[in-house]
């Protein structure tokens, strides 16, 4: 049997993104139980309905990669108590045209980190709402990670034992749900 395909979408276009570092650490925690890949979103043009008659090549690549995935892990910062524009833009492209909405039926887990004490909680709620409306099967539970400089060690792994165990359990639940519903 072929492995489940899990795609990771990072909601930041910042070169030194802490969410990308977190996402890379999470892929390590997932290990080789599934096929993991990152899907790029920072090369997509701003959504414009006028481009629908001939979708840009980057958009076609992006939507194909989402369609080819059994499950999606979003790792995102919070911008002004919502999701970053770069992520909303990618979701908008994937949602249109309505009969080709790539988010529908996808098993999704959400996490993210920011220096705030409530580490992306409000942004994640917005993302949960948007993806729910688009028909994704968003896993229950919460994974708000307050960013500290020592969150990730030099080997790119979650340093804190408690956070490591918490995120391992969160990912295990995600993979179990994806195995049940995703393929
Ligand atoms: C436009 C903007 C808005 C932000 N708003 C929030 C916010 O609402 N809540 C929060 O916790 N952090 C906020 N931040 C701080 C980010 O969490 C911080 O820059 C974080 O490092 C972003 O993650 P990244 O490194 O993965 O891009 C904001 C940053 C920017 C640039």
Q: Into which percentage range does the β-strand content fall? A: 15-25%
Following the backbone from N to C, one meets helices and strands in this order, namely EHEHEHEHEEH
CATH homologous superfamily grouping: Flavodoxin domain
CATH class: Alpha Beta
How many domains? The number is: 1
Characteristics:
single chain, 183 residues, alpha/beta, Rossmann fold, six-stranded parallel sheet, 38% helix, 15% strand, binds flavin mononucleotide
SSE topology:
Layout: E1 5-10, H1 18-30, E2 35-38, H2 57-67, E3 71-75, H3 85-95, E4 107-114, H4 121-133, E5 137-138, E6 144-146, H5 161-181
Parallel strand pairs: 1-2, 1-3, 3-4, 4-5, 4-6
Bound molecules: flavin mononucleotide.
Write a structural description.
The longest helix has 21 residues, at 161-181. The chain has helices spanning 18-30, 57-67, 85-95, 121-133, 161-181; strands spanning 5-10, 35-38, 71-75, 107-114, 137-138, 144-146. The protein is α/β, with parallel strands linked by helices. The chain has a single domain (5-181), classed as Flavodoxin domain (Rossmann fold, 3-Layer(aba) Sandwich). Strands 1, 2, 3, 4, 5 and 6 form a six-stranded parallel β-sheet that branches. The N and C termini lie close together (11 Å). It is built from five helices and six strands. The protein is globular and about 50 Å long. The structure holds flavin mononucleotide.
């Amino acid at each position: 049997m072929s492995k489940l395909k899990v795609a990771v979408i990072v909601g930041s276009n910042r070169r030194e993104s802490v969410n990308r570092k977190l996402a890379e650490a999470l892929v390590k925690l997932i290990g080789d139980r599934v096929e993991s890949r990152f899907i790029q979103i920072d090369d997509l043009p701003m959504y414009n309905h006028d481009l629908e008659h001939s979708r840009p090549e980057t958009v076609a690549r992006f939507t194909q990669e989402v369609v080819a995935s059994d499950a999606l892990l979003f790792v995102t910062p919070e911008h002004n108590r919502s999701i970053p524009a770069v992520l909303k833009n990618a979701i908008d492209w994937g949602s249109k045209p309505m009969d080709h909405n790539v988010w529908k039926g996808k098993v999704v887990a959400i996490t993210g980190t920011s220096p705030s004490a409530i580490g992306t909680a409000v942004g994640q709620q917005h993302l949960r709402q948007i993806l729910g409306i688009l028909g994704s099967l968003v896993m229950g539970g919460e994974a708000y990670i307050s960013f500290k400089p020592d969150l990730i060690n030099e080997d790119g792994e979650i340093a804190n034992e408690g956070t490591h165990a918490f995120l391992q359990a969160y990912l295990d639940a995600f993979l179990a749900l994806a195995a049940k519903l995703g393929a």
